[in-house]
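Section 3.1: Structural characterization of target chains.
Under the original work plan, the team committed to producing a structural model for every single-chain target entering the pipeline before any wet-lab resources were allocated. The record below documents one such target. The sequence was received from the expression subgroup and is listed exactly as submitted; it comprises 498 residues.
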Amino acid sequence: METLSLLASGLAGTMTVANLTACLTGCFLGTVVGILPGIGPSATVAMLIPVAYVINPAASLIMMLGVYAGAMYGGALTSILVNIPGEASSVMTAVDGYQMAKQGKGGVALVVSQVGSFIGGTASVVGLMVIAKPLADFALRFGPAEYFALMLFALVLASTLVSESPVRGLIGVVLGLLIATVGTDLQTGIPRFALDVPELLDGIEDVIVIIGIFGVSEVLWFLATARGRGEEAEKMDAGRWKPTREEWRQSAMPIARGTLVGFFTGVLAAGAALGSFLAYGLEKRVSKHPERFGHGAIEGVASCETANNASTGGALIPLLTLGIPLSGTTAVLLTVLLMYGLRPGPNLMVEQAPLMWTVIASMYVANVILLLLNLPAVGLFTKILKVPLTILMPIVLVFASVGALALNNNLFDIGLVFVFGGVGCLMRWLGFPTVSIVLGVVLGERLEQSLRQALLMSDNGPLTFVTKPISLAFIVLTVALVSLDLLARRKGHQAGEA
């Protein structure tokens, strides 16, 4: 009852002109950030730090959280309509979302993604209010060994499901892991696979690979295939944008499961990208028709977009209750809190109750604003699909180039985008799943660091992964997953021969 009273007072504090304006501004900026590849929420929130010096703490924090939430909403637009994920968290959305757009159901995918985002984001704030402290204590039990086992499980789960051939999926993941090792070794300072190219010493940005593998490769594939030069391929069908009752039914459980997966990966600071990977893998695993995934399954879109939005509330739990920022965006938010003299920890919600409950309540308002901003515009967004492909594809190239340039203001990054576009096109021609490379790249650096830290901190060597209950549980799940997958494929092959 006390929680509801505090929430009501927080909502009253949010409904001031200054705070509502800050919330609306943050949501709009976040949506734009999500649409534009290369500009992440952490960088945008960091650029807003000077604003914190001239406005009150509540309005400043509300605006920054609006950017954080809005970036997750905006990422679905380009992922679904032009196959360019703005963030790593939108990669899996593009897998089925773009296929739906090509089938004339791009508007349906957008509506379901926006509703799923709203439900996931709102539910995560409820979780933040109700069970923040116990979950934060549980997250502290995750060390390097546990994180390595979790990410290994996610990689195997996703790579075996995104391809008809698990071997090809794993080869793609290994290639992505190799790309993730390019740069300077953080432990030894020794360059790895940099080929004496100074621009590669800092490594290859995830977004560069994502833009190239998805966006540029689509353009190159369009140019390389006879279908791309045919009259019938001049434009895609914008189609309808209102989901049918059956499509809502198909999306309901994926949204529910995506909310849980995304929220808990947010609490564990595993990231929105990992949450979307796990949610997608879970849906394909439990589906009665897994063959539809990768070819326009609405369940894939619903689960991914719900999961990456549900991670936002979960990621705030370690920050607010323990003072531990476990992602780039929460690290910037910690800086802002300290600027205002606020010390995150177990007593923050008590000592600064009026301010913190206003900020938490604003996240409910932000999700409503984002839904109202994006949902009515779906019909307008789908007009993009009516643009002839001979015009749309060059625009995609410009969009990809600008996104790459925005990362480091370096022309070398634009060249890398086109290199990975060629790699993606070649992989499609050879029948390899392009998304598996992205999985390896996005999780590769953190997977390696967790492995090395776990081995350095333990006297048992590799045995450390089986002597800790949580990491052992994930390893057992990984082995069981691979075994079941191989068994199911073997039975299917035998049935096909019969």
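Strands lie at 183-184, 191-192.
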